[in-house]
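Troubleshooting: if your tokenizer reports a length mismatch, compare your output against this known-good record of 457 residues.
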Amino acid sequence: MALIDIIIVAIFFLIVIIVGFVERKKITLEDYWVNGRKTKTFFLIATVLSSFIGVGAILGTAGIAFSGGGLIALAIPFSFLFYLMLYAKFIAPKIKEFGDQHRAYTLPDFFTIRYSRRAGIVAAFVNLISYGIYLALQILGMGIFVNALTGFSPNTATIVGGLIVIAYTTVGGLKADIRTDVFQFIMMLFLLFVFLPVIIFKGGGLTALQSLPSSFLLGTDFVPPYVIILAFLFIGIATFTYADLWQRAYAGESKRTVKRASYISGILAFLFLVMAVLFGVYGHILIPDATSNTVISDLLTFLPVGLYGLVLAGFFAAVMSSADTVLLITSMTIVHDIYKKGMNRVMNDEETLKMGRKVTAILGIMALIVALLVFNIVHLAIQAISFYVVLTPSIIFGFYWKRANTKAAIWSIIIGLIGVVAYLFIDPVQAFIPGVVLSFLTFIIVTFLTKNNTRSF
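Known-good structure output:
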């Protein structure tokens, strides 16, 4: 790597650290968790997209396409586009209204208020499992790109990258997160408008796709066709349960702001996911001996000096902007949902903020250890989504079905989790299918079998 590339990436890190630490002593609890509920449209678009497009979205999707998913992996971005549009229309405004009315901070707050404290605790544990996996995934991605920059061993690189994210997230919370997200969002545009065209050109253009085996392009060697269909139908529905999207909706200035930002960021997210699929496909053409973990970092070698540093900084931006959010969400789940609400602990805002920072640091270190032990991006990405989906019925029916009740919510989550965990031992790639099907069926059946004892909110 040339000196100019190292300087470019070093400047990027310096700006992120400076932005992340600005006004750190003036942070309140509202700032730390929901940015004072006053985030404007542009900032909301930047932070939603930056949080959504991370290791799972880019490296995970590219890894699926590279490993045999081919162009059929486009089912993933189209699924997310469909459900993100539904989220923007029907769910995001409801979340904002709920958050303002009840001063909510987290996704499990909805389960506590709409259903019961027990439902809130169950949702908090699911949130903790999902985001714990996702946090390890982000830190692992950091390590891959630090390795590309420095030549450090993957483990050393993972440690270095993880510690950077842990530091500024612990100090500044969501306020620092949003500040850094705006800068990182701008850097991420280099991936879409610079790196992708270069790779398509180097790979022989669109006509080069014709040389690939149909079994690769159609993904038949990766998974059976029915899995692709179910992936389109169900993977994107997990967006309704993403705690980071809920947190951003809470942080928006108004319902109109949240709705508009959700539409725009959803379209941009679709473009980035399509980009990731193309990276995997063209990686198969240019470097067939690569691995699903490293295909994108290996593609960086096709860039000229100077551009290499800018694009690498763009990847760091994508990974770091998701990692800090996931770390913050996981910390909030433990402090706010499990410790304060679940265990009935009374703390003022100052004490909560202090504890939140400590837990953030500890969780970051724990996720770093998990990332070092489970060094597989594709599996981590799919497993995280598989756990998310079991919360979906309780959210959709909780907003739009008056008969939805506590028993239905709790049993829906439990049975869905059993389905996911059991299928992880059979085929991790398909574990989301029994999870979402069982959770929906259980919710509907239990609702009709129980008396209408719903709670208003």
